[in-house]
Amino acid sequence: MAESDKASRPQLRVAVVGHVDHGKSTLIGRLLFETGNLPEGKLKELETTSRRRGVPLEWSFALDSFQAERDQAVTIDTTQIPLRTPRRDIIIIDAPGHKEFLKNMISGAAQADAAVLVVDAGEGVSEQSRRHAYLLQLLGIHKVVVAINKMDIAGYREDRFRAVSRELAAYLEKIGIAPYAVVPISAREGENLVKPSAKMAWHDGPTLLAALDGLMPAQPAVALPLRLPVQDVYRFDTRRIVAGRIESGRLKIGDALIFSPGNQAARVKTIETWPPGPGPSEAEAGQSIGITLDQPIFVERGDLASHEAAPPILTHVFRARLFWLGRGKLTQSATYRLKLATRNAPVTVQSVDRIIDTENLTGAKADAVATNEIAEITLRSPSLLALDEYRANPALGRFVLIDGADTVAAGIVSMEGFPDERRALADSQRNLFTAEHLLGSEARSRRNGHRGAVVWFTGLSGAGKSTLAMEVEKRLFLRGYQVYVLDGDNVRRGLNADLGFSPDDRLENIRRIGEAAALFADSGMIVITAFISPYIADRERARQAAKGAFHEIYIKADVATCETRDPKGLYKRARAGDLPNFTGVSAPYEEPTAPELVVDTMRHPVEDCVHAILDYIEHAIVLKTAGAAAGKTQ
Amino acid sequence: MAAQCATGHGFAGRDTPIPFDNNVLASSRVRTTSPKTATVQMLSHLDELEARTIYILREAQARVEPLCMLWSIGKDSNALLWMARKAFFGRVPFPVVQLDTAMELPEVYAFRDRIVPEWGLDLHVEICPPIESTDPDLPPAARAAARKTEGLKNLIAQRGYRGIILGIRRDEQATRAKERVFSPRDLNGSWDFRDQPAELWDQYKTELQPGAHLRIHPLLHWREIDIWRYTKRENIPIVPLYLARNGKRYRSLGEKNITFPIESNASTIDEIIAELETTTAPERAGRSMDHESEDAFERLRTAGYM
Fold first, then answer.
1. Which residues from chain B sit within 8 angstroms of residue A464, using beta carbons?
2. pLDDT tens across B269-300, in order?
3. A194 and A253 both lie in a single domain
4. Residues near A580 by Cβ (< 8 Å), separated by ≥ 6?
């Protein structure tokens, strides 16, 4: 592909959300100006328009393009503006903050990879700040930068910034969002947007732009099991082409596919392309493709193709957490049309289970759901549906409801409390599923929403293994992964209490950790080990034990650096001769020759390292495991 | 960073949690090593844009009937037609409509007459009514442009289209940036921008009230420079007026009475791309109708303009 580097730079889509009047549009307008992205003549136009309306220079007029928006100084509908930074292209999505326009806010935010949550330093965290944060989480947007705005009005005071940050942090943690950065800014005055603010020298974090530049766009879910929702079937000539976009996974010519819910089976004969010519032999998530099949099976729009080994769930009933946009109320027994991927089917509300109060995150029993409320309900379909749980595969676990001609709800799927009906179907058809299969790795993966894995940290004492392991564990846990850290503290006290520090005991120590970690992984857990593990041979043995689920991450820092950190004073003692066989001082450390990931803690701060590891685990871990079953992104 | 770590910030020990409001990120930092498994062939930016457009075109074809596509014969709708051919494996399965005011530049008509047989298009030329039929309150250039709105209304009334595919982009103009991909229009073709439907993920609104129609916008997410990079990569033919001759070129093509060339020496697509990488001049600077009054274009669009 002969494209310039610039064309293939990662493009990040960022939604700017928050309470009305907390300054979202002003922030974007000023950011465009500061980065040289305001078109020629636009500043003049803003000055003229502002003067005509008798207001000080109003940056938000750069975005609020409707007359009504400028007249009322309120954003009505979402908009998207490209912004070029020296590092990348960013698409800024302005989302209205007024409660009345929540459907426009979620329409904008649903397109984003990441979000900036804007909070007024003076007013603090408001109802709408919390609701927007909750909706981000519901929409699957976990990469969040918080901008504490209007610091000019708050006198650029650090204590005010800390107070608002703390209040928001407590809320975000409860809903599973760990912000990437929290930045004190003044959008109107341009403070801390692009250049570090001299007025807030106490802030030792990034500017807003630097924080945005540190975020990575969402990647297509290549690592998850194949899901190809059938969009259409074309018979323009003698070919019968099944068309659709691969939502997750990959397929290649010759693959055996099944089409749910009917379970018709066929192999991929060709991948069709235009202009004519030699086509590809495989395709992956994100691509809109057309395939022909080796069997003349009946397939139609709404069917869902997958590999036989990792099919979607089949069910008549599921639990949904949804955001209700309808003008009337959602009530029990009401019938709507469900759109999930390309499937369009009637569903009935079996029960309204609870209304979620986004203020304090409590649930209340109710019979109906009112406009702009978030609720958990149970939906039943007369026909069999093929879907995934949202946490396992977002694209096949989210849906909208249609009432008449209107989109009235956006929701995500949970199967909590309901079985996958595929098994019953398979039993009656073929009776192929044995008891062993019922507790196979696929079942465990489905319940967990991800596969098991051994993430093996290696590196010198003081390189940062435990710090990173604990932080990564916490973040993964908050995102819904089953995860556990094995480190010296919990292993040496029990499992390996009989072992000392002789080379033989060290070998046995690592051997047992490798075996124990492999068992954890086999049970479906992600286990992170944080041991120096200085010998290549020991780590190779651990890799063998984990049977393909092993991921070596080199936490890199040289002896000199680690010695300056020396958190436990061990280097000092080793230099004094108190600790024999101390790695890096009196015993060798063998660097990994081909680790899956290198994290250099000399050159990068903790937060960057944590993100690199999280990105690796979330994007790559399932891919490396053969015959992937249900996994998880985001 | 070694210094920062040594001061006990972050790496001092696992008991020190990373403070939420005291993020240790600093500006202009390069990212940590990316996963090795990134060797999986990644889709390029243009591939992603193209895949999305094809998805939208196929949604339109599967869900909306009868359907047509407006072809202005400019760079955007040429690229869109090209992608329609990709989406449907060489055959454009819906009619292609030119709203003709007889005011296009001669090169545009020549290009049309060459491409139609070459690409096997089912072309319908809709002759737009005269300027007298437009809203007399509009400024003059906007009035000239509004002839196309009237032509489109006639087309829909006569042929009963429920879906009109058109190649507008968000970065062209601020009110276009507020559009939905599937955007409903009432019986008169008016756009109720105060109450646009929710559009979530790739679930587009295809349900309609009787008498209404949908404007379908498969290129909304493209930028001007993307279109040129794609045109170059795919070798898509263009009207030569986009390339500079004697220091001038058309950046946006419209009718000859209300569109003007810009100063430019970009005489190849590569030079156009280079020009766009640095320019801050808006794309539609040469379109008179955009600049007659603060809300001229908004008024055109709410009344049904493209």
1. 5, 11
2. 999 999 998 887 888 877 877 777 767 777 88
3. no
4. A501, A586
Distance separating alpha carbons of residues A359 and A374, to the nearest angstrom: 11
Q: What residue of B is the nearest CA neighbor of A283?
A: B41
> Is A466 close to B177, i.e. CB distance below 8 A?
no
User: Residue A251 has which token pair?
Assistant: 């397929």
Shared domain check, A60 and A179:
yes
Let me know if A533 is a catalytic residue. Answer: yes
Last residue of a domain, one of A213, A237, A253: A213
Query: What interface predicted TM-score (ipTM) does this complex get?
Result: 0.83
Q: pLDDT digit string (tens) for A305-330? A: 999 999 999 998 899 999 999 999 99
The verdict on a CB contact (< 8 Å) between A405 and B207 is yes
CB contact under 8 A, B20 and A9: no
The packing angle between helices A127-138 and A102-109, to 10°, is 40
Q: Are A106 and B200 inside 8 Å of each other by CB?
A: yes
CA dist A519 and A444 (Å) reads 13
Structural domains counted in chain A: 4
Q: According to DSSP H, which parts of A184-226 are helical?
A: 208-213
**B68 in a structural domain:** yes
For A514-531, write each residue's pLDDT tens digit.
Answer: 999 999 988 888 999 999
Report the candidate in A206, A198, A146 with the shortest Cα–Cα distance to residue A173: A146
CATH of the domain at B124: 3.40.50.620
> Between the CA of residue A284 and those of A32, A158, A305, A494, what are the distances in Å?
35, 48, 13, 46
Torsion sign, CA atoms B62, B68, B73, B75: negative
pLDDT for A267 beyond 80? yes
Q: Of A173, A190, A213, which residue sits at a domain end?
A: A213
Q: What span, in angstroms and rounded, lies between the C-alpha atoms of A622 and A619? A: 7
Coil, helix or strand at residue B213: strand
Farthest CA pair distance, chain B: 79
What is the total count of domains within chain B?
1
Annotated active-site residue in A60, A197, A306, A533? A533
Residue ranges making up the domain that contains B186: 45-222+290-302
Is A25 part of any domain? yes
CATH number of the domain residue A200 falls in:
3.40.50.300
* A196, A462, A599 ranked by CB distance to B33: nearest: A599
And the tokens for B144?
């000239």
Cβ of B90: how many Cβ atoms within 10 Å?
Answer: 17
- What are the C-alpha distances in Å from B141 to residues A138, B151, B254, B255, B296? 46, 16, 11, 10, 10
Q: Do A481 and A613 sit in the same domain of this protein?
A: yes
- Among A454, A334, A619, A12, smallest CA distance to B36 is for A619
Whether residues A455 and A603 fall in one domain = yes
Nearest CB to A471 within list B18, B25, B29: B18
CB pairs under 8 A between A and B: 293
Q: Is residue B15 part of a domain?
A: no
* Of B48, B52, B280, Cβ closest to residue A40: B280
**A405 and A467 housed in the same domain:** no
- Within 8 A of A109 by CB-CB distance, chain B residues are none
Measure CB to CB from residue A407 to each of B198, B209, B279 and give the nearest one: B198
Residue A222 lies in a domain: no
- Give yes or no: residues A283 and A338 share one domain: no
**Domain with A262 in it:** 228-307
Contact residues, chain B, for A234 at CB < 8 Å: 88-89
Same domain (yes/no): A123, A160: yes
Which of A52, A85, A87, A104 is the best residue to mutate to test the B interface, defined by the most B CB atoms within 10 Å of its own CB? A104
Identify whether B21 is part of a domain.
no
The answer as to whether B284 is a domain residue is: no
Same-domain pairing of A129 and A33: yes
B174 and A400 in contact by Cβ < 8 A?
no
Whether the full predicted model's pTM is greater than 0.80, yes or no, is no
